[in-house]
Amino acid sequence: MKNPIENLNKIFDSRIRMGVMSILIVNEEVSFNDLKQMLDVTDGNLASHMVNLEENGYIKVHKGFIGRKTNTTYSITRAGEKAFKDHIEALENMIKGMK
Amino acid sequence: MDSQHPPLETLQDIKRMMERSSRFISLSGWSGVSAGVCALLGAWAAQNRISGYLQAIHGGRGYYEYGTGRFGRTGQLGDSVAILYNDLLVIAGITFLAALISSFLFTLARSRRNGISMWDRTVQRLAWNTILPMVVGGLVILRAMEWGYYELVAPGCLIFYGLALVNASKYTLGEIRYLGYGQLVLGIINLWTGGLGLYFWAAGFGILHIVYGVFMWWKYERQP
């Protein structure tokens, strides 16, 4: 029998990265500050997780300005969507396997 | 996989984040009930005013007089109509404000309890998508009144409010869609039953709100 855990994506082990992906999959574009507020994390903590997701090609970064202040927003990529859906499917299969 | 995050809990977390980030879920059932009670009181006050006016005109008690709010012999029929019109507008305005403020307070209380901010992006989206159809509808109804099409007031309120609710259902707890459908059905029927406007209005804004509010409270807020 295949080990059900091998389909889980290691990148989404972190609750913060999992939270970011959950938010981005249902919202077209979300700003850094909104993510920070919804996930209740600090700037530095969130930033490092965002870099990680970006390096894996799961999210796209858009840098813009509102007046003089920088406004960074994020959106999910095709690859990110697929990876996250696979991850959810793997979790669902684990639950089915346990019954 | 670490044992601290079993798959079922993780999936529930994912679902919660999706909902919390895209919908405003703190709308309280009590808001529906309070809005419905305000609507019923408003409809009752309006009905009193209208029947008082009709009795006066047809029963020969005289006309409404400006300033006194009483009936007298010196007034003109035109004045009576104008005063009735003004009174009904005031009643409508007070009813709307009372419903808005009371339902806002119940929802504010619930979002405080849940520790969710009431000013995040989901609230802004919900507000914009509800207010837009209502403001447009309000303008249409005001113009209809100015042109003398009073029969359109009740169905107009019901239909535009119904559309606003169906639109809002994408941004808050989805069940509000059915409240919207209910308002639309009543509004459309009322397009062909003009004289009964106030009753349809009371059924839609009063009864349906209360039924919806109790259902939502039962489903989401009741402490078992």
Automatic annotation (TrEMBL), chain A:
<feature type="domain" description="Winged helix DNA-binding">
    <location>
        <begin position="16"/>
        <end position="95"/>
    </location>
</feature>
<dbReference type="InterPro" id="IPR036390">
    <property type="entry name" value="WH_DNA-bd_sf"/>
</dbReference>
<protein>
    <submittedName>
        <fullName>Transcriptional regulator</fullName>
    </submittedName>
</protein>
<dbReference type="InterPro" id="IPR027395">
    <property type="entry name" value="WH_DNA-bd_dom"/>
</dbReference>
<dbReference type="InterPro" id="IPR036388">
    <property type="entry name" value="WH-like_DNA-bd_sf"/>
</dbReference>
<dbReference type="Pfam" id="PF13601">
    <property type="entry name" value="HTH_34"/>
</dbReference>
UniProtKB/TrEMBL annotation, chain B:
<feature type="transmembrane region" description="Helical">
    <location>
        <begin position="126"/>
        <end position="142"/>
    </location>
</feature>
<feature type="transmembrane region" description="Helical">
    <location>
        <begin position="83"/>
        <end position="106"/>
    </location>
</feature>
<keyword id="KW-0472">Membrane</keyword>
<keyword id="KW-0812">Transmembrane</keyword>
<feature type="transmembrane region" description="Helical">
    <location>
        <begin position="148"/>
        <end position="166"/>
    </location>
</feature>
<keyword id="KW-1133">Transmembrane helix</keyword>
<feature type="transmembrane region" description="Helical">
    <location>
        <begin position="24"/>
        <end position="46"/>
    </location>
</feature>
<feature type="transmembrane region" description="Helical">
    <location>
        <begin position="178"/>
        <end position="193"/>
    </location>
</feature>
<protein>
    <submittedName>
        <fullName>Uncharacterized protein</fullName>
    </submittedName>
</protein>
<feature type="transmembrane region" description="Helical">
    <location>
        <begin position="199"/>
        <end position="218"/>
    </location>
</feature>
